[in-house]
Amino acid sequence: MFHVVQYRPLRLITQTSLSSMCLKLVLSRPAAFAQIWKSWFSRHSLVGNKNIILMGPPGAGKTTIGRIVGQKLDCPVIDIDDDVLETTWNMSVSEKLQDVGNEQFLEEEGKALLKFSASGSVISLTGSNPMHAAGMQHMKKNGIVVYLDVPTAVIMSRLKSMKVDRIVGQSPDISLKDILQFRKQFYKRWYDIRVLCGGDIAPEVVAEKVLDAVKRYQNSELETFISTRSSRSGRSMEKGCHKYFSDVVTEGLAPDGGLFVPERGLPKFTAGEWQSLIEATYIERAQVILERCIHPADIPASKLAEIIGTAYGENFTCSKIAPVRHLAGNQFLLELFHGPTASFKDFALQMVPHVFAYCIPRSCNYLVLVATSGDTGSAVLDGFSRLHDTDKQRIAVMNFFPEDGVSPIQKSQMIGCQKENAWSIGVKSDFDFCQTAIKQIFTNSDYTGFLTVEYGTALAAANSINWARLLPQIVYHSSAYLDLVHQDIIPFGSPVDVCIPTGNFGNILAALYAKMMGIPIRKCICASNENNVLTQFIRTGVYDLRGRKLIPTFSPAVDILKSSNLERYLHLIANEDGQLVTQLYNQLENQGHFQLRKDLLEKLQQDLVAGWCSEEDCLAAIHSVYSTTGYILDTHTAVAKVVADRLQDRTCPIIISSTAHYSKFAPAILRALRIAEINQNPLSQLHLLSSYSPLPPVHWGLLESLKKKENDDHQVCAADMSVLMSHIETLIQNHFM
Question: Where in this protein does the record say N6-(pyridoxal phosphate)lysine is found (predicted)?
Fold first, then answer.
């Protein structure tokens, strides 16, 4: 067996002589001893007995980077090619490949790995090692596998300059590019940590990134979450009660009524790291971005890849997942409606149920509560109904929606999406009541404690108050910018504006987070309908609900007066002053209004501008765009289009978030297109729209939902907290007991 513990001979030192030497050093040069001890402890705690295993394609720089990392850590460095394979075979790797051929070479290479053992070392694998499963399983037992992720175009350029003319698997019928692409599946299977490596990045810089990534991997306690309402003094007193990603996914709302945010903020990507994702697919971009936002101690990279693949693999009608389409002039549409329920909510809610199922403890049942203004409901129901059967037995979802505050098709969707673990309840009130009721239920410790003790069931949230809901939205805003670069619309680094129809502030907050992470977004334009509380707030700094009543509009998903996610943004611009946030929201709750300080309003207006759109202008925009382009905007996108036309300065591209498919709002669309006779049957309305051969086509998922005859009924209840809690108890008894 090939065994390496140290790479160079070491002088044997007895414990007695070592103690004597340390004592002399402490007495004679205490400062020097402290520095040496600190340096040794830092290296030892980083590596210990574990190996750092560098993996990546040929030309990724594994050998060079391995030597630099080993030098920085003062630990052994082993190159599998030079120090193991060629030593074992007594011939060069290229000679062995030529001698035995591709398949036998992989087998011989794997056998050599199985006989290899080392500890506390930096190991550089060959490009083909990951293709031997047993060998890699053996290596992972005592190592942290670091994937040096280099763009394929960069690798091909490097291999050409290195005059590498053959690698394992290459033949006259198979190109080098195809081999490199094929191998990615094996790299993705084995790594613990990914390090993005651009084209012109120096090996020394990559080595530092490797060390930083390993430190992060071994220090999950650094990635904790706090409440937007926690004071700085309170945090120091609560250090023993850290909240991690898994906790905030499970709990949803903080115990003090605030929202969870990462204590150290979001990760930053360099320009080079973003540029390395320009050629990537949507799923690949999502994997890279979310790996940096979710610690592997919460969800390992391999499990995260499985979740992302399940969420976006087959459930979206467009292979690009979130395509960017040119509309007119400098305006582009980010189409977010290709998921199974035809709205942007699918991006989070095809993924979050699987994240939730992975993070929650197995010892408890969970009831997920959600309030919806229209689109969230069907997306939550659909997402949680796609869980594995074993998960559906311990996770159920209850959706509350305003009975008369959603479109007929949205209501039909929510009713049609009911499954054995997913139910919808109409409430005789508006969305704000539903959302406030859920928050009050979560903060009612007597009630939640009763459910846990009596029924063994905990409550969880799936609204955008849940941190996990925001992360997939950061991905599509980032991906949209990268698509414009990929399409040669702009060079990387050039700014764009984004215009987003929003009521609860979650979607636009995700764009702001993407900006913080390094995407060159200049301004975020908040587009409101006639419920324009957010627009007034962004313009004046005054959030005022006094005398305001919710106005039902053609764009019901933004018919919201109390904007939940605004709290996270205020916490951010207030430099994490939880006491100020608490004060503002207590004032809003008790007096119906609050006003930002001047300095905070100035900060806010550096990021945000806002406008609103009337019902007439919304319908006119739909008609105008269809007349000139043949493209049908949904009502929410039309609101954003109107506001974008008014506020953009045309000095850079503007990306308009198309948050829902027009099929969901067929009566308003037919009215906008000036079609006189409108059948009241939702299915007939979609067939009528389809007859116009519109762009994009009518959404298949909606048609399927409306065709379903089962589960065609739902419960309706009064706007009363005790009634809602009674429904929750009944559902728990029926599903879990």
Answer: 345
